[in-house]
Amino acid sequence: MLSVPAKIRRPEETRRKLVDATLRLMLRQGFAATTVDQICAAAKLTKGSFFHYFESKEAIGHAAVDAFAAMGMELYSEAWRDPKLDPLAQVHKIFDIMIGFNRRDEPCVCMVGMMSQEMALKYPAMRRACDLHLTNWAKMVSALLAAAKKSRRPAVDFDPEKVAWYLNCLWQGSMLIGKTRRSPEMIIENIRQARVHVDGLFGISPSRPISKCRSIQPRKK
Q: How is residue 77 annotated by DSSP?
């Protein structure tokens, strides 16, 4: 009786192992320093299996970026799972989730940000993929800020989309510098400052506990 290769018997599992191995390696050492041989060794699979699913290292790098972004959005989705939660409180939950990413010895690293920096000019498809994921993050935050602006009386007028992109840049830049300085504490402090900035748009004092942010009266229609 002929045996069926594992890559055919369990195609999704094999592909996932390759992508997971790529994520681990590239998050640690970047795209250029990661080889197909290293990916196969980390996944405990053959190069034949690799090229059965991916035509090149660029292709699996693209898949790893997509997988990382999907994982991140799933983690962020905890912030808006309760539709009854105040939109500004949902933004606070996003900040809490971001801080949670850095509650460890090593600073948080974003695959999307890393590939944007390393591959955007060399690999147009990667640039487009990273741009899409960064835009999706900004749209998510922009929608929550717009909802908060609608339901509350902001202290100053602001453009939710511009603020969302500002927060996106702060988040990505903090991870880049935090990685260089080996300082998750710096990333956490930057997120706290971002929270103060957002609260200030709604007239909330930094001295006010986060739990009381809902005490502000919503805007009357």
A: G
